[in-house]
Design a protein that fits this description.
92 residues; 5 strands; 1 helix; single chain; elongated; mainly beta
């Protein structure tokens, strides 16, 4: 299954900088993005969706956070890191 999203704004990142493509095309084949451009692809896709007025961008996913640590902020205060982790945090 392949799908082409057309006429959408696409936020990409190239060389460490964000770039916006207006009226762009984003092609997906199976579970991989295989085309991003402001030019219509020559490849035929199984399905085409008009995304006029929509923005496609990478997901905003935080896979590593420390917000839960606020619950144990004062526990083991003043201990060196290895003792703090092994004696206080890991048992909790």
């Amino acid at each position: 299954m392949s799908i082409l999203f057309k006429n959408c704004r696409i936020l990409t990142r190239e060389d460490g900088k964000y770039k916006e493509i207006k009226n762009g095309y984003l092609g997906v084949d199976q579970d991989k993005i295989d085309y991003i451009s402001d030019v219509m692809p020559t490849k035929k896709y199984d399905e085409v969706k008009n995304m006029n007025g929509k923005l496609l961008m990478p997901g905003l996913v935080n896979t590593h956070g420390h917000s839960a640590m606020t619950l144990v902020r004062a526990a083991g205060s003043g201990l060196p890191l290895d003792r703090w982790l092994n004696e206080v945090i890991f048992p909790i």
